[in-house]
Specification:
Strand content: 25-35%
Low-confidence stretches: none
GO molecular function: ABC-type transporter activity; ATP binding; ATP hydrolysis activity
Protein name: Glycerol-3-phosphate ABC transporter ATP-binding protein
Subcellular location: Cell membrane
Number of domains: 2
Mean pLDDT: 95
GO biological process, one term: carbohydrate transport
Main location: membrane
CATH topology of the largest domain: Rossmann fold
Distance between the termini: 31 Å
Bound molecules: adenosine-5'-triphosphate, magnesium ion
CATH superfamily of the largest domain: P-loop containing nucleotide triphosphate hydrolases
Length: about 375
């Protein structure tokens, strides 16, 4: 059963559509990541679920309760929704101790003192804050403060966590650590979580599923593997993965090759069949291939000259230690490859590169939709 359900939800500010016809279901106990570039409507979506913003159209259901229905004029205020939100700028009360900061939501609810004490200590233990309960926020590191903010959300035992880029104020190393901790914690608690980020690595590593948004429109929902392996369009394909997928315009020929002008690649028989069935022969398409699916021919398993191989010039080599990002050029066509550390390519060299055709994608030129 879905714990959170959005049905044809819109948010229009003045004339501006921030969220367009969004339908999404988040399962009980699921960790769903809302991913997309700045301004795509992530925070607005989260705020509508929290009850901080009313949808212009559509319905929002939490558990078995309709919390918003624009058409019927239903709107349940945030207090009654049983959700806890953690923001990027987590405002702790500076004059209160860690203990009192965590205890605060329970005091508001007028829980018995003993119960409050039990819960605060339980949460502090879980978050490794037990030793710090008497400190004030200013006496804590950024990561510790973030954990206090989480503690304050957890202590309420809400039905749903809503997190809006909660780790973005932390330095890179701490972020990676907190990422893992947060994920573990969510598993332990089993609380349905919607987590907003524009960081695709965060999304890939944390999410059970990822919902990718762009310009207020949901592009694709799927497991990290699905959105990576089977992106529905060029937006998703280009947004997930670093360096991003290469897109090269080409024409599908009758002989089963894609013709890029400067070079050609042979499609696999089943790929060509799909293109024939879709009536995309002798038409311009967008060929997509990830940098890690292009190899230095010296180290490639299957190389068939004239079919999956081409001669390219090495423009730039970025050595990352274990691997190399290699900027390549064939005539006017530029693309990037990720080679293993063993590759010895040098800038200015001409090399043979192999395209792993079974990992290739084809998108329609007119709308960027994936064919495969
Ligand atoms: N109260 C408002 N009035 C008018 N426009 C708004 C309002 N709130 C948000 N917007 C607009 O709606 C769009 C979506 O905003 P939102 O804050 O949801 O984006 P976001 O995906 O969270 O971006 P970011 O990653 O930068 O936080 C933006 O273009 C924003 O300018
Ligand atoms: Mg935002």
């Amino acid at each position: 059963m879905a714990e959170v359900k959005l049905v044809n939800v819109w948010k229009i500010f003045g004339g501006f559509v921030a969220v367009r016809d969004l339908s999404l279901e988040v399962g009980d106990g699921e960790f769903l990541v809302l991913l997309g570039p700045s301004g795509c409507g992530k925070t607005t979506t989260l705020r509508m679920i929290a009850g901080l913003e009313e949808p212009s159209r559509g319905r929002i259901i939490i558990g078995d309760k309709v919390v918003a229905d624009a058409e019927r004029g239903v709107f349940v205020p945030p207090k009654e929704r049983d959700v806890a939100m953690v923001f990027q700028s987590y405002a702790l009360y500076p004059h209160m101790s860690v203990y009192d900061n965590i205890a605060f939501p329970l005091k508001l609810r007028k829980l018995p003192k003993q119960e409050i004490d039990k819960r605060v200590r339980e949460v502090a233990e879980m978050l490794g804050l037990t030793e710090l309960l008497n400190r004030k926020p200013r006496e804590l590191s950024g990561g510790q403060r973030q954990r206090v903010a989480l503690g304050r959300a957890i202590v309420r035992r809400p039905k749903v966590f809503l997190m809006d880029e909660p780790l973005s104020n932390l330095d890179a190393k701490l972020r990676v650590k907190m990422r893992a901790e947060l994920k573990k914690l969510q598993r332990q608690l089993g609380v349905t979580t919607i987590y907003v980020t524009h960081d695709q690595v965060e999304a890939m590593t944390m999410g059970d599923r990822i919902a990718v948004m762009n310009k207020g429109i949901l592009q694709q929902v799927g497991t990290p593997e699905e959105v990576y392996e089977k992106p529905k369009n060029t937006f998703v394909a280009g947004f997930i993965g670093t360096p991003p997928m290469n897109f090269i315009e080409g024409t599908v020929r009758e002989d089963g090759f894609i013709d890029f002008g400067e070079f050609k690649l042979k499609l696999l028989p089943d790929q060509f069949e799909v293109l024939q069935e879709a009536n995309i022969v002798e038409k311009t398409i967008i060929f997509g291939i990830r940098p890690e699916d292009i190899y230095d021919a010296m180290f490639a398993q299957i190389k068939i000259p004239g079919e999956n191989m081409a001669r390219a010039k090495v423009d730039i080599v970025e050595n990352l230690g274990g691997e190399k990002i290699v900027h390549l050029r064939i005539g006017e066509i530029t693309f990037q490859a990720k080679f293993t550390g063993e590759s010895k390519v040098k800038e200015g060299q001409e090399i043979d590169v192999v395209f792993d055709m079974k990992r290739a994608h084809v998108f329609k030129k007119e709308n960027g939709e994936a064919v495969f």
